[in-house]
Write a structure and sequence with these properties.
This protein has 180 residues and is α+β, with helices and mostly antiparallel strands. The chain is 28% helix and 34% strand.
């Protein structure tokens, strides 16, 4: 009888770790599958700069077309955003020291249902210092508009500014002050 107990203990000690490993592997595969089929998001990584270098302590406000507003704080000048798909989203960059103009950019995250992979986007935002540029009061409203309205062309596999003509007018006005 003791011989059978030893065999059972040995089998248990040998097989138990394999059982645990197979459950972990299975759950990892399920997580990957769920991520790739259920949790699609547009990933945006970037940094905030001004004329002197990296800008710290920036509030990033994400405004969805359905009224949902998310806010994150970037303390180190870097950020990593995960935007929901099938929305029109405005992203605002506001320096907490109130020494920079708020800068905005818009994204259309609508994607076809058959999309398997969402393209990553790298976004560096150059914030404009209020004290370095002599922007006239009548032109300060230009900073209220997004500098671009980005969409993804799945056939060409590239991001493009859907509002290109209007964005050029905004950016031309900003550049007329010598800004970037």
């Amino acid at each position: 009888m003791t011989y059978i107990k030893k065999i059972i203990k040995s089998l248990f000690l040998i097989l138990f770790p394999f059982a645990l490993f197979s459950q972990n592997a299975k759950s990892n595969k399920e997580e990957i599958l769920n991520y790739s089929t259920e949790d699609h998001r547009l990933h945006i990584k970037g940094q905030t700069f001004n004329t002197l270098g990296k800008v710290h302590d920036v509030r990033i406000r994400i405004v969805h077309d359905d009224g949902v507003i998310d806010t994150i704080i970037s303390n180190n000048g870097k950020y990593n955003l995960h935007l929901e798909l099938n929305h029109k989203i405005l992203i605002e960059f506001e320096c907490l020291d109130n020494k920079h103009y708020i800068k905005r950019i818009a994204f259309n995250t609508n994607v076809p249902n058959e999309t398997k992979r969402i393209p990553y986007f790298d976004l560096t935002m150059n914030l404009v210092e209020k004290d370095k540029w002599n922007v006239q009061d009548k032109d300060k409203g230009i900073f209220d508009f997004p500098v671009a309205y980005l969409n993804y062309d799945f056939d060409k596999k590239l991001w493009y500014d859907k509002n290109d003509k209007y964005s050029r007018i905004i950016n031309k006005k900003i550049k007329s002050y010598g800004i970037y």
